[in-house]
Write a structure and sequence with these properties.
alpha+beta; 4-stranded mixed beta sheet; 4 strands; 98 residues
């Protein structure tokens, strides 16, 4: 859990994608998130977290639906939503916190 704290305690926005390999919707987000990361460059971080490998974190954050996306800045959650999102929407959301 302390690693998670270091991950989200950034001066730049951090977009987290909680997924599993077996969830088709979550897997479909990988290409979209690559585009988002490329568009944002070093203005933000995009991090994918497999909840099968991090069950305690998924439980602590009450991850129910997949994919679940969150934006953190300076350790504070700014936005959260479950379900697929398109690249332009995500880029716009993250840029609000740059």
């Amino acid at each position: 859990m302390s690693k998670f704290g270091a991950l989200i305690d950034q001066e730049i926005p951090v977009l987290l994608d909680f997924y599993t390999e077996w969830n088709e919707q979550a897997a479909a987000m990988h290409a979209i998130l690559r585009d988002v990361a490329a568009a944002l460059g070093d203005k933000a971080k995009v991090i994918k977290i497999d909840i099968d490998k991090n069950p305690e974190l998924a439980e602590a954050l009450r991850i129910k639906g997949l994919p679940t996306l969150m934006i953190y800045k300076k350790g504070e959650m700014k936005w959260r939503q479950s379900g697929e999102q398109d690249a332009n929407t995500l880029i716009g959301l993250v840029q609000e916190y740059v």
